[in-house]
Specification:
With 119 residues, the protein is an all-beta fold. The protein is built from no helices and eleven strands.
């Protein structure tokens, strides 16, 4: 199992940048595929970005491609999401999640961190 704690959310004007962090503890971090998800007001939770255990492979939702960068530091057991050129529609609670190598779904979730982008 792995425990996840997000940080770095806050209030930002449109066009600004924020970096979210997700600190992991428990099992070996590098064995987990990691993802960022978000849930806006009145919306379902949506996938934002994914990164493989080594960090070599990443995938992004079209809505954030070219603006957000997912990365990880396995030595620090930490996942990051660099968010640039923020838009009001990026306003959401952001969650990090972990999927074990033998699992087909994300089994472990953080508590979420609020990101609010003002116009």
């Amino acid at each position: 199992q792995v425990q996840l704690v997000e940080s770095g959310g806050g209030l930002m004007q449109a066009g600004g940048s924020l970096r979210l962090s997700c600190a992991a503890s428990g099992d070996t971090f590098s064995t987990y595929y990691m993802g960022w998800f978000r849930q806006g007001p009145g919306e379902d939770r949506d996938y934002v970005a994914y990164i493989s255990g080594s960090g070599a492979h990443t995938i992004y939702a079209d809505s954030v491609k070219g603006r957000f960068v997912i990365s990880r530091d396995n030595a620090k057991s930490t996942l990051y999401l660099q968010m640039n050129s923020l838009k009001p529609e990026d306003t959401a609670v952001y969650y990090c999640a972990a999927r074990g190598p033998a699992s087909y779904k994300y089994d472990f979730w953080g508590q979420g961190t609020q990101v609010t982008v003002s116009s």
